[in-house]
Write a sequence for this structure.
């Protein structure tokens, strides 16, 4: 009898076709109010800047950064309990030290004082956990360098060197034949379910054309996708390689990998670098992404077919469009058109990339 097939892992290029799930929380506001105060921190910074994301609160406090995970539950992560937040803080530190050595400084408890207040550290019971990081120079972040017109070729060469070494050392995935291609097809369908939902009001005709082109490539190119897997090119990578996560110091530092879902870190470097190239293009510097892919090909000896890179870019653009419109499910969005406009920008890029699809010719 044939061996039982490997259980199908979760989809990696998308989180889910459904909007996020949430758990009501009444305790975060008090923690955030405390962490906004300069006297909350041991070195008493002159000011604290707080940034809210879907999943976290980030506090820029002098030379350090502290990240507090929100007690939220989505279809692809669960930070809703204190043990889960503690565990994922530890995972964030462990995983990000691969590409950001010396940046992730450790995990700190937020404790309750005898008087009922909060303290960073201390001996009271932990009511939450934070990741402490070294604050990176904002002027050296890749998105900022692109916007300021200060990105240099040598910066990209150094970044490509770091990423090539990372992918070379990363753990390759060993799945049964057909699983990788099947997961990609599932990703396309999850994107389709969200982008074609009537509640977001996106134009259906061009979306259907993009998705049809992606489906054709996934079907006709199944052999090349599986060849990438067989060659050890599908690895445990970063998972969210965007310009705002790249700091081009003398030794490039890359932060904020996806710690909360291992399946979503499963990537082909051609996919992950294509995603970074897509985001560079959206910021106005398509040449930066092209140069990075070229540096990688020369350093690694891995030159993925242009049609495959275009396919990956198109899929990522649809994913980013989906994540943008998911913001519209937040009832308190002050500017819903901002997110719809961003989704349309990504969909235009997805459509552009489909014109670059070509019949796959090999791994």
């Amino acid at each position: 009898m044939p061996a039982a097939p490997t259980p199908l892992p979760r989809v990696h290029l998308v989180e889910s076709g459904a909007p996020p799930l949430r758990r009501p929380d009444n305790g975060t506001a008090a923690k955030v109010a405390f962490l906004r105060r300069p006297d909350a921190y041991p070195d008493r910074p002159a000011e604290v800047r707080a940034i809210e994301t879907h999943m976290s609160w980030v506090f820029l406090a002098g030379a350090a950064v502290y990240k507090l995970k929100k007690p939220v539950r989505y279809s692809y992560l669960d930070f809703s309990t204190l043990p889960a937040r503690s565990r994922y803080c530890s995972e964030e530190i462990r995983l990000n030290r691969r590409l950001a050595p010396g940046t992730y400084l450790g995990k700190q408890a937020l404790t309750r004082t005898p008087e009922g207040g909060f303290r960073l550290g201390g001996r009271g019971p932990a009511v939450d956990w934070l990741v402490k990081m070294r604050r990176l120079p904002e002027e050296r972040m890749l998105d900022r360098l692109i916007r300021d017109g200060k990105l240099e070729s040598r910066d990209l060469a150094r970044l490509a060197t770091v990423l090539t070494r990372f992918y070379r050392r990363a753990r390759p995935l060993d799945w049964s034949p057909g699983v990788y291609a099947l997961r990609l097809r599932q990703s396309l369908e999850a994107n389709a379910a969200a982008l074609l939902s009537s509640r977001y009001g996106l134009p259906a005709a061009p979306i259907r054309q993009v998705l049809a082109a992606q489906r054709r490539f996934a079907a006709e190119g199944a052999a090349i996708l599986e060849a990438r897997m067989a060659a050890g090119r599908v690895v445990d990578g970063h998972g969210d390689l965007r310009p705002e996560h790249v700091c081009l110091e003398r030794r490039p530092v890359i932060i904020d990998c996806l710690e909360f879902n291992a399946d979503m870190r499963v990537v082909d470097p051609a996919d992950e670098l294509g995603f970074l190239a897509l985001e560079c293009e959206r910021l106005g510097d398509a040449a930066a992404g092209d140069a990075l892919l070229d540096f990688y090909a020369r350093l690694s000896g891995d030159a993925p077919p242009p049609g495959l890179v275009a396919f990956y870019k198109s899929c990522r653009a649809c994913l980013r469009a989906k994540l943008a419109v998911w913001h519209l499910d937040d009832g308190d969005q002050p500017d819903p058109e901002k997110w719809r406009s961003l989704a349309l920008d990504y969909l235009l890029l997805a459509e552009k990339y489909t014109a670059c699809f070509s019949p796959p010719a090999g791994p």
Remarks:
- The radius of gyration is 21 Å.
